[in-house]
Each structure stands twice: as structure tokens, then as C-alpha cells.
Amino acid sequence: MSSRVQRRALIAITTAIALTFGTILVGAPANAAVGGTVSGRVLLEYGETLPTYSGEAMFFPLWGAGTPTSTPIDDGHYSVSGLEQGDYRVLFRSLDPTTPYADVWLGGFLHESDSTVLTVGASNVELDDVVIPQGGSISGTITSASSTDRGAAAAFLWDPATGEWERYSRWANADSSGNYLLNGLGDGTYLLRFAAQGDSVLLSTEYWDDEEYWSNSTPVVIESDADLTGYNASLAAGPIDLLRIAGANRYATGVSISYGQWDTADAVFIVSGTNFPDALSAGPAAAHIASPLLLTAPDSLSPVVAERLAELEPEYIFIIGGTPTISQTVENQLQGYASDQVVRIAGANRYETSRLIANIFFDGTGADTAYLATGVNFPDALSAGPAAANEHGPVILVPGANSSVGGETLELLDGLGVSKVVIAGGAPSVSGAIEAELRGTDFLDEVYRRAGANRFETSLLISQGSFPMTDGVFFATGLGFPDALAGAALAGHPAWRSPILLVRTNCVPAGVNEEIARLKPSDIYILGGEPTIGQGVVNGVPC
After folding, report:
1. pLDDT tens digits for 207-235?
2. Helix (H) and strand (E) counts in the chain
3. Cis omega before residue 209 (within 30°)?
4. Are 346 and 405 found together in one domain?
5. Model confidence pLDDT, tens digit, residues 524-540
6. 419 and 273 in a common domain
7. Going by DSSP bridges, is the β-strand pair 188-195/227-228 parallel, antiparallel, or unpaired?
8. I need a labelling partner for 472 at 20 to 30 A (CA). Which of 38, 110, 126, 257 fits?
9. Within its chain, how far is the Cα of 404 from the centroid?
């Protein structure tokens, strides 16, 4: 992966922020008929029951918000009633971080993607015994700058099939001497992170081996339930860095964002800086092939963009949208900056353009996941861009008020191999009829909706649903689109994999600080200058 030393070079201003924390927002589950009771038994690896095991069975519906229903494992048994009928994945999870037993999914699998899907119907069901394997461990010493917070360690399991981290980590607080023990780690590859235990003391976040960013860290491999020792870390004092990326205008801001990752680039995406629909699907596509995205005026190429293209020396330049959006004059100007060719991707309308982008950039690799968003407005798609890139999928625009996404979109999803769809936004943006249509297809296993009461809550829910952790978070205005368009290519880049959270002009919406507490990033990046995002956001003023 690319080094991210460029981070410190792209800043217009640098300051620090202390954040307050609380409960994470969740969405409401979809309504459905109530199913029968589900029960079963949990055994240890060698067939013993679990009289002293403190754990829970978590039932994740494969639709709606995906919010789990949990039931305790008592004396090795569990039982739950009142689940809505439908398909679920089930996680058997320890509530005791000191236990030597690994968390497993139904079927005895360590990875969610491998797990057996449970179909809950009207009848009661007794599941087969679930065997909880004993795992390995990682231990070491954390040297903390704080005398009251000795730090904590967390291990995130990598799923090679999906290219993503599992949604839950194993964690352990260091004791008064700084010693920690991460237990119950099944065989696999882990990201090892060190951070503060709580909210009251501000400490740095570090990754093994003495790295500030996860993309530069060294993975830790557990094999044959091994017990690994000597994984030590040091946590310095200091708040999260809050950094602004801004230029004199939207075009210069897009250029400044590109300096965060790229010295040169094989390809560059060019999108309109004055019109959003064609550009909304371009961000995750650019991130997918690790390319920057720059903005242009409709009729002429900005000098600052031309200068940046000369520096990037791309082989290919992809123009997104037709000539009403980006003129032939601009295309002619771009010809001098691509060593191979300039390619225009444009359909008859915004929806066809979106489908073309998905087909061109994801057909070769396929996509297990796709995000759908309305093509009428921009906020939900802006938040969806980095999340889709994090899950290696496209954002596809749909006529959300309609009762169907249309045969072309269904054919595209099926052809890409998509099995999971995430609808970004509520029913006013993408209709309930579309959600029902998707759930009724024979090729989609999971259809979720991330929808809050407004665009800011929706942004939070999208982040919570896609990012188990990150070391960077991007703030973008929820009232405009240009800065976040270019930001999506950077935030979604494979070396960053960071969410974009929408904020108001001079305050931080409810839930944002709590999401920062969950993710524990090292840095927060503000996309755009003042007055787009003002000092109230810099100072962490709540809305």
C-alpha cells in the first residue's frame, strides 16, 4: 500500500480538538411478521457445556437497518422469541474479554462471510449445537503518557474473502502496570491497534509495529491457537489532529485534496464542479482504481487543474458526463495531458451514466456489494461513496421516487455478481417499493437501508454500517457537493478507507462526536474552507 506521509503536506490549517462522547446512533428494523422461537446450545471445543461462559447470541437481519437482536447465553443455552421472519446471520460472542474462547458465526465460522444463514419462519426451531473453539492470544506492555489511562489493545480480524475487517474486534485494557492480554483470537490475520481506554484522557492511536496509520502497520498472524508475546506499544499525549484541506475555490480545493495521496497517477477522473448527478458515482470508481478526481468548470479547464494534471502525468483521463455537463472545449484541452487517451463516459441521462461507470470499473473484478442512492439529490450519495469503496463496490443512482429501479439496473447488479445492496437514504429518497423489489429478487441475499431522520443522521448510519475502524475521518458540508466529490476518491482510497461525515456550517451534528469515539481516528480532515465549514466545526460546537 502507498505511504501516507503526504497527509501532513496537504493542510491549509492545523489545530487540535477534544471531543465528547456518548451513544452510537442506530436505525430502526423493518416491519415483518413475527417468527417462531429460535433456541440452541453452545458447547466448548471438547464438548463441555458453558456454565461460566458470559456471552450472547446476536441475530443480524439481512434487511432494513441490520440492527441485531441479542439474547444471553445462559448455562450454555440460548433462546429468543419475537424475531421478525426473514434471513439472519448469527454471531456467538463473548462478553468477557478475558475468555480464551473465540467468537464464532453460525456454522462454527470465524468470518461472517462464511457463516450459515438462518431463515426464521413461523415455526419454532432448535438449531444444531454450536462449538466455540479455543483461540490464541496476543500480549505485551503499553507505555502510556497518562497515569490514569494505561491504554487498551484491540485486534481486528481480516477476512480475505471480502477484503474487509470483521465488524467486531477483540479488545483488552492494560492493567496498572501497562500489561494487556488479548485472548480468544481464532486463527487468522489481525490488525493490532493501541488507543486510550476511555474518553477523558486524550492519547494517540497507534498500530503495530509503532505506526501511526493502519495502512503502514504490520499484520499479526495467529496460527494453531498460538500465544504471541512482546507486542509492545507507546501512547503519547495529545488530542486528535483536526486538519483543513482547502483552496481558493472548489477547483483548487479538489487539487489540494489530490495532494493527499498522489504524486503521479495512471488515471484521473474529471467531473463537473457545478453539477452533481454524473459525478456522484465517479468517486467510488476512482477510489476503486486508486485514482484522483478533479473538478472542472463546464466550458474551460481551470489553470490550477491544468497545472495539477501536468504533475500527475496520467495515461488516461476519464471525463464523466456528456457535453452539456463538460464541453467539447474542455475535452480538447485535456487531450494534451493524457499520454494514452481521454475517454468520455456519458449516458443518455444521469442513471445510464451511473450504470456505465459501475459496469466499466467494476465488471472486471465484480462487486459483492453495491450502494443505491437517489439521483435527484446529492447528500446520501456523498456519504455512500467512501463506504461503497471500502466494501469494493459502486454507487448506482436510481430514480428513487419510482416503484422500480428498472430492468437495466437489476441486470447490472446481477451481472456484477452483487449479493448485497445498501440503500442510502430514507423512503422519500428511495421508495419502499424499490426496497421491496430488491428483496424479492433471487440473486440478492442482503438488502439494507441506512436512513436517519435527516442527511446528517444518514451519514452516521452509513459510517457505522461500513467502517469498524479507521485512522482518518473526513468532514464535509451537508449543504453542498463540490468538496466531497473530490474527497470521496481520497477517503475511499485503499490506503485510507475512511468515512465522510456530513456536518453543518458552524456546528457538529448530534452523534458525530460519538462516532469519532467509536472509530478512534488519529486525524480529522475538513474538506473546504470558510465559510463552507466554519470555526464552530473546528471548535467542536454541537448543533
Report:
1. 999 999 999 999 999 998 899 999 999 99
2. 12, 33
3. yes
4. yes
5. 999 999 999 999 999 98
6. yes
7. unpaired
8. 110
9. 27
Could you tell me which of 198, 186, 219 has the C-alpha nearest to residue 112?
186
Scan for cell 507507546, then name that residue. 234
Here the cell at position 236 is: 503519547
Q: Could you tell me the three cell numbers for 305?
A: 487543474
Q: How far is CA 478 from the centre of its chain?
A: 18
Q: What is the DSSP letter of 27?
A: P
pLDDT of residue 17: 31
348 domain-assigned: yes
Q: How far apart are CA 269 and CA 291, in angstroms?
A: 7
Q: Is 263 in the same domain as 404?
A: yes
Phi, psi of 491 (to 5 degrees): -60, -35
User: Strand 63-64 to strand 13-17: parallel, antiparallel, or no bridges (unpaired)?
Assistant: unpaired
Q: Could you tell me if 255 and 219 lie in one domain? A: no
Instruction: Name the residue range of residue 365's domain.
Output: 5-14+241-538
Q: Which residues of the chain have pLDDT under 50?
A: 1-30
Q: Establish how many alpha carbons lie within 13 A of residue 429's alpha carbon, considering only the half-sphere containing its beta carbon.
A: 23
Q: What is the pLDDT of residue 199?
A: 77
Q: Are strands 188-195 and 152-159 parallel, antiparallel or unpaired?
A: antiparallel
In a domain, 21, yes or no: no
Q: For residue 382, which of 531, 281, 269, 287 has the smallest C-alpha distance?
A: 281
pTM higher than the cut 0.90: yes
Please tell me the predicted confidence (pLDDT) of residue 425.
97
- Enumerate the β-bridge partners of residue 137: 227
In this predicted structure, what is the pLDDT of residue 49? Answer: 60
Domain membership of residue 329 (yes or no) is yes
Residues 6+ apart with CB under 8 A from 519: 463, 467, 469, 470, 473, 499
- CATH code for the domain of 91: 2.60.40.1120
Q: Tell me: do 290 and 231 sit in the same domain.
A: no
Strand pairing category for 136-144 and 233-235? parallel
Contacts of 43 (CB under 8 A, 6+ apart): 49, 50, 76, 129, 130, 131, 132
Instruction: Report the C-alpha gap between 163 and 392 in whole angstroms.
Output: 8
* 382 φ, ψ (degrees, to nearest 5): -60, -45
Number of domains in the chain: 3
Angle at 393 between CA 469 and CA 113, to 5 degrees: 65
Q: In angstroms, rounded to a whole number, what is the distance separating the alpha carbons of residues 155 and 195? A: 12
Q: Same domain, yes or no, for 64 and 95? A: yes
